[in-house]
Fold these 4 entries.
Entry 1:
Amino acid sequence: MAQRILKLLQDEALRRSKSDKLIANYLERNIADLPFETAKSIAERLELSPMTVGRFLRRMGFDGLDQLKRELRRGSSNPAWQVKGPVDRLREDIRGGKLLAGLIQQQIDNLGQIYGLTTSPEWQQTIEALVGASEVYVAAYQNVRGIAQYFASQLSYTRPRVQFVDGLNGTYAELLDGSVSGRLLFLHDVRRFASKARPLAVEARRAGVKVVLITDEFCPWGAEVSDICLVVPGSHGPLWDGAATITAVLDLMLSNVIVVLGDEVSERVERLTRLQDIFGDFET
């Protein structure tokens, strides 16, 4: 469905005036972020009136931005763990190299989009939050849980008081008990969305915990429940969703934190290395 809308935005009939071109180009470049936009926010970014944006959307065939969002969600309803194509054809494609070449190109395209994310205000706000929080709690579920645990482990080498929370105690009390101010919840959730993710974010903010959510373009509620929402490209390929893009984003985030903290990271790594030597976890 996103491809149909992108093709529609290229129609010359929708690009007749200067404002038409501004809106069409903006929607085309930021289609992944539309779930978090309103007609008013788009108009403000482009220095146009909301009525101008509304008229453009009606010419596209949509009765406002909400209908366009619903159309995008409906076209992206495949679950994360579903092979999205006829198996026989996929076998032919992989034997000819076409399938893997397409997947590699998709990853390259996604990595290209990451640059825009790293230069956004939300990225800088996230780095400042990770560096300045009194405690950082990382949470994720299902097939992205392992990636989030990796991030929490790596982040703990750069700064103290980092913890992965699994919610097995049934309360998330270590995060929500209010005993320490300045806490941060770094929540990672992508389609198919976990039932606990949204209520955890809501309760965290209610408890005065800042919430950073890293999610994909299929999430319709991210901006509503978080202080900072980072949206990464989702998978549109014929196979189930992979982790290459999100892992790259998290590695870049760790690198950015290391640069900001500077010598503090080196000192911490030296202390941890000494402890590792004492307890013998690694070969010499």
Entry 2:
Amino acid sequence: MADPVVIEMANKLAEECLAVQNEIGDDRLFMQVGDVLGASSQTLEEAFLTAIRTRMANDAGRKFLAQKLKTHEASKSAE
């Protein structure tokens, strides 16, 4: 398990990376950042990629639920 300081750095970097990704429209930017990190710290790279993936999964799950609710509400309105 990674050092708590490494996890904290990875979490902050993940948040910043996702914000930049959204701003510039490059949904694979995190892979490039991971490559940069891996060149000097595999530990930070792994923690960063985990932080990115969990956030992206969370966002996908929330989007899925919102769409399901929207579809459900639309079908109730149609009745």
Entry 3:
Amino acid sequence: MILGIVSIVCCGLFAGIPAFILAQMARKEIAQTGQGGSGMATAGWWLGLISIVLSAISLVLYATGVLTFDFNSSTTY
């Protein structure tokens, strides 16, 4: 779940993909062993998935030119 939170806040795909994979592994292990923590694993899975989707959308928008990162603050007319 921590990787899922970090992926939403700052790291995007770099933490989103591992969050998704590790949460899926945790969910399978919890289902097999009956341990607690199913809610946290599910939350990490959803956060990782949301981060991956948002990163993919932003990459597509940036590649098509819809989204730009122009940090020039000068207002010369």
Entry 4:
Amino acid sequence: MLEGYFDLDEATGNDAVENRKRLLAVQAALEISKAAVSATTANAGIRSQMDLRNVAQEVATLADAIQDALEADL
């Protein structure tokens, strides 16, 4: 979904590595968010507004948590 967001084709070094890690963490956060919004326990009428607004506000925090968890294992 986010392929091509960062121009990583010619990027090298630490910046390329960090951008790739962030991209993967955000993609994982979006997958988790997508599953949460489409859960059958969500109220269908409100889901399109409230849940998506919450996802938009929290996706960066979730991506940070994913990166922190992955880096803790190193």
